[in-house]
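Project standup — Tuesday

K.O.: blocked on the structure for the chain from last sprint. Re-posting the sequence here as requested.
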Amino acid sequence: MSTTRRQTLTAGLGAGLGLATAAVSPALASMTFEGTSMYGLIGRMKALPGHRADLAAILLEGTGAMPGCLSYIVAEDTVDADALWITEVWDSADSHRASLSLPAVRDAIARGRPLIVGFDSQTETRPLGGAGLA
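H.V.: unblocked you, prediction finished:
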């Protein structure tokens, strides 16, 4: 499995913003479906107990200004009061990686770092399309 932004953040934070470097395999990055090479991530992030809403607010700030991001959804886990699910769709793995250089992303990582316990589930996907995606 390649490193996702969440894994890198976890390592960089010493524990665990679902925004960090992706080291995508060349095979994955070059795969296309129906003329697209969309790249997706789905992960479950754990916040410090009682801080899920604070972390969600940070994750949701500035998400409209990420070039190449087609969808970025932050959702509360309905069973675990400290968990969030983050679902991302990007036009490419390169856009995902490039997002790390954005000032808003770097700021969110710095502010979210103290609130993240870790990640207990994550996967990379190759989105094919669907409601809300071109």
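K.O.: great, moving the ticket to review. The chain has a mean pLDDT of 78. The first strand starts at residue 39 and ends at 47.
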